[in-house]
Amino acid sequence: MTCRAPSADTRETDDGSGAVRRLAPHARRFLARRSGVLVRLALWSLAETGQAFLVGHGVARAVDQGFLAGDTRRGLLWLTVALVAVLLGAPVIRGVFAELAGLTEPLRDGLVRHAVDRSLGPAAAGGPGGTDRAAVSRLTNQVEIARDSFAGLVLTLRSFVFTAAGALLGLLSLHPSLLVVGLPPLSLGLGLFLVTLRPMAAAQRRALAADEALGDHAARSRAALRDLTACGTGPAVARRGAQLIEDAAAAARVLAGWAAVRTAALGVAGHLPVLALLLAVPWLRGRGVTAGALLGAFTYLVQSLLPALHTLMTALGAAGSRLLVVLDRIIGPERPEPRPERTRAAEPERAGGLGSVRAPAATRTEPALAAAPRPAPGAGGGAVTARATAAIPRPGDDAPHLEGRPADRARTAAVELRSVTLSYGVRAEPVLDSLDLCVAPGEHLAVVGPSGIGKSTLTRLVAGTLVPSGGEVRVDGREVTGRPPAELSALRVLVPQEAYVFSGTLSDNLTYLRPGASRADLDAAVDALGLWPLVERLGGLDAPVRPAELSHGERQLVALTRAWVSPAPLLLLDEATCHLDPAAEARAEEALARRPGTLLVVAHRLSSAVRADRVLVLDGTDAVCGTHDEVLDRSPLYRDLTGHWQGGPARRR
């Protein structure tokens, strides 16, 4: 396995024109199929046009034909018309929202279907693929962003078009000169805003990509802290993180710059028309524009045109850019991640001797390894072969003699994995890929490797709590998959990192897996594991235990002692001594190794690996197995881990 800084996914950072071209055909088809909804939405919006027209027109007529003409009643009547037009906006908005659901909900459903098809389609077709990390985000967050942004855009675009139409008709009806004064600054602000759309979209894309890259780097680094420390690549990862932070900050500064330009466009469109109208009052009066018409023009600008324009520009700048980016990610072309090439040689015949490991998906050949120098009584040592080695004798064939094992004596493996593959998902990368492993009865095997490489997965597979995607797992010659819990408990004991201790007496906890254990058995277990200080502190084996009052190390000692008492012939320790000090860990592992049966330990200290008969190194591409010295010579990863455990570089022996 190579430890390196996590790389960020590359993201498209164009100005958005490519996304527009890609999405335009989809948008046209979507809207064409919903022409009826669009027509009904337009009919409701026509009422909004009439509302905008009547508000300004009513104010102008109230001034000119009412109050300035000395007819107060007529003036109040025109103001009442304007008020009624405002009040009628409520049912109009209600009708608009009722029709809006006919656009937004089909969009959401279509995006969900597309996201599901894009994620699961290749897997269902049996094609290769890795983990689609973005699938959950597309199905949840991104689909909802697209739905909400689309709804906001439809509302604001509709409102601007029909409100502007009503207001411009009103200005024209009052006096054509009003359009000459108010329309140019309004168009200038809108044009300046439209010019910023593409660069703003590009800046938002870059900011989003930088933020995703930084988040992905942080998540990967946090998950691989132990590996980065073991491989000495922490400083490089830190430098990469600092660069990503600088990239994100630079993208944010560019985005802020374009946001300032957009704010200027809003200012031009929102304030310049009013200022131009005020400055042009003498000229307008000279052309016969009445006081009522001027007041009506201000009403059109302040109450209708400028608010609608401000809402449109805000929505296009925020929701529009966001919708464009999200839709392109959901229905745009896939950006496949590069996948490493995996080579496979011809399948060798299955190993027949005990203690062999065949590396999964090997990319290099490994020489055959001699037998371990410390085999269990009557058990064979270990050999490691890669997938490209010569055929291995089948069970029953005349196999070469291994040290400590008579050739004429057939033995049942304590643990045997036959081409075991495990993937967490149909398209996910395998955690274990075609792994063959044989552990002899009475053998002590230590499993090492970086975090997340599959060590805990291996123990769960052997324990029968995890079903392999392919292959077969056997314990004491019996397949574990599908066996009831009672039968599995008789075959093995799995002690995880987080030890389980329940409320009750200490004796109840220790005899949980063997209720008929005698007091002499318990005394022997307590003495072997060094549990007497805890027993004395609690007040004896029959004293009550409160799990919350025990330290992590004390809980682990209780769980290890319970495993020692168990009659199961196989013990699986998944970093079950990580909270013990080195001396306590050594005493516990040595006691469990002396116990009749087989011991498989996921090691987190060098001493655990040295104490074992054999060491199995998992590094993602090869599985290397042998004694400590042999694996140290053959596995670069193991040398790196050993150097980390020892506080310095490991020596090749």
UniProtKB/TrEMBL annotation:
<feature type="compositionally biased region" description="Basic and acidic residues">
    <location>
        <begin position="334"/>
        <end position="350"/>
    </location>
</feature>
<dbReference type="InterPro" id="IPR039421">
    <property type="entry name" value="Type_1_exporter"/>
</dbReference>
<feature type="domain" description="ABC transmembrane type-1">
    <location>
        <begin position="136"/>
        <end position="307"/>
    </location>
</feature>
<dbReference type="InterPro" id="IPR027417">
    <property type="entry name" value="P-loop_NTPase"/>
</dbReference>
<feature type="transmembrane region" description="Helical">
    <location>
        <begin position="178"/>
        <end position="197"/>
    </location>
</feature>
<feature type="compositionally biased region" description="Low complexity">
    <location>
        <begin position="358"/>
        <end position="373"/>
    </location>
</feature>
<keyword id="KW-0812">Transmembrane</keyword>
<dbReference type="InterPro" id="IPR003439">
    <property type="entry name" value="ABC_transporter-like_ATP-bd"/>
</dbReference>
<dbReference type="InterPro" id="IPR011527">
    <property type="entry name" value="ABC1_TM_dom"/>
</dbReference>
<feature type="region of interest" description="Disordered">
    <location>
        <begin position="334"/>
        <end position="383"/>
    </location>
</feature>
<dbReference type="InterPro" id="IPR003593">
    <property type="entry name" value="AAA+_ATPase"/>
</dbReference>
<dbReference type="Pfam" id="PF00005">
    <property type="entry name" value="ABC_tran"/>
</dbReference>
<keyword id="KW-1133">Transmembrane helix</keyword>
<keyword id="KW-0472">Membrane</keyword>
<keyword id="KW-0547">Nucleotide-binding</keyword>
<feature type="transmembrane region" description="Helical">
    <location>
        <begin position="76"/>
        <end position="97"/>
    </location>
</feature>
<dbReference type="GO" id="GO:0005524">
    <property type="term" value="F:ATP binding"/>
</dbReference>
<protein>
    <submittedName>
        <fullName>ABC transporter ATP-binding protein</fullName>
    </submittedName>
</protein>
<feature type="transmembrane region" description="Helical">
    <location>
        <begin position="263"/>
        <end position="284"/>
    </location>
</feature>
<dbReference type="InterPro" id="IPR036640">
    <property type="entry name" value="ABC1_TM_sf"/>
</dbReference>
<keyword id="KW-0067">ATP-binding</keyword>
<feature type="domain" description="ABC transporter">
    <location>
        <begin position="415"/>
        <end position="644"/>
    </location>
</feature>
<feature type="transmembrane region" description="Helical">
    <location>
        <begin position="150"/>
        <end position="172"/>
    </location>
</feature>
